[in-house]
Amino acid sequence: MNPNMLIDTAKLLVSGDKGLLAMDESVPTCNLRFAALGIPQTEAARQTYRELIVDTPGLGEFISGFILYDETIRQRRKDGTPLVKLITDAGIIPGIKVDTGAKDLASYPREKITEGLDGLRGRLAEYVGMGARFAKWRAVIAVDHCLPSRGCIEANAHALARYASLCQEAGLVPIVEPEVIMDGGHTLERCAEVSEEVLRCVFDQLYVQKVLLEGLILKPNMALPGLACPAQATVEEVADATVKCLLRAVPAAVSGIVFLSGGQAAELATAHLNAMHARFKSSLPWPVSFSFARALQQPALNIWLGNPSNASEAQQALYHRAKCNQAARRGQYDAKMEEVARG
């Protein structure tokens, strides 16, 4: 492990008011999104779409890193150029999702454990050889009045810490993603309570596994009411609850925090990030940014629809969303930016 290299890479990923673009959907997940829009569910279509993202002019102004999937990191453009080279040539850092998905947790009904530790050391070495400089592992935590169980929290926290330790050994910055999901009718307060408990457990395990906090990035959920909760929160309430949770549970040594969007609408995710900076930026001990997937990609995907003639307009939509999120990092996002984009 080279601590200085890890720290330098982690700092680069959250510098310049930039954020991450997660394009690490598994094949089944990507196919589901394509199917909903009538796009062919083929490897060729997936590659064309990811080329569209990578080739978006100027995206490096706002995006510091791409999180890739195993299929994507191996792909080449039609002229034979590896996508990883296109990414690095654009000044963007390539990363890779390395977990193998959330599976049912034995003895804990309705709860999940993320798998993928078996053989991970070898896979990480291969990805480093392909040019990856950071990695991601996602844990999935369900919430209701009695979930999550302590067993589920501890199992996922331990897996996240083991993964992070192996990443740093291989020279990769680990992105640690414990996601308290939005499904269900839980309140904002319940989400914040569970998120704090999960984060405390995760950092306890990171300490046990001797993970260098300065060489990792945390990718948490925002504190949000469940999608079925009748009492939805204001943008300011979400910002307040989220920042309060993070200040209580996340050590100041962590290099940065990049939020997942978790299924939020694109503009709402941006507004939540903006409110955190507008209200609390001077008191945050770490850079706070974004690592969105759907909240960055979906507007572009809705335009592209698999049609080559729509590619330029789709890229413009992606560029716009990335620009809005950089503005949110500065606390300067305004809904009027969306009106201008819509013409």
Polypeptide structure, described:
- It is a single chain.
- With 343 residues, this protein is an alpha/beta fold.
- It has one domain: Aldolase class I (TIM Barrel), CATH 3.20.20.70.
- The strands form two sheets. Strands 1-2-3-6-7-8-9-10 form an eight-stranded parallel β-barrel, surrounded by six helices. Strands 4-5 form a two-stranded antiparallel sheet.
- Helix 7 packs across helix 8, helix 8 packs parallel to helix 9 and helix 9 crosses helix 10.
- The termini are far apart.
- The mean pLDDT is 96.
Present the secondary structure layout.
Elements: H1 3-13, E1 19-22, H2 27-36, H3 43-54, E2 63-68, H4 70-73, H5 83-89, E3 93-97, E4 102-104, E5 112-114, H6 120-130, E6 134-141, H7 150-170, E7 173-180, H8 188-208, E8 217-218, H9 235-249, E9 256-259, H10 266-280, E10 288-292, H11 294-304, H12 311-329, H13 336-342
Parallel strand pairs: 1-2, 1-10, 2-3, 3-6, 6-7, 7-8, 8-9, 9-10
Antiparallel strand pairs: 4-5
Helix pairs in contact: 6-7, 7-8, 8-9, 9-10, 10-11, 10-12, 11-12
Summarize the structure.
The protein has 343 residues and is α/β, with parallel strands linked by helices. The chain has helices at 3-13, 27-36, 43-54, 70-73, 83-89, 120-130, 150-170, 188-208, 235-249, 266-280, 294-304, 311-329, 336-342, and strands at residues 19-22, 63-68, 93-97, 102-104, 112-114, 134-141, 173-180, 217-218, 256-259, 288-292. Helix content is 48%, strand content 14%.
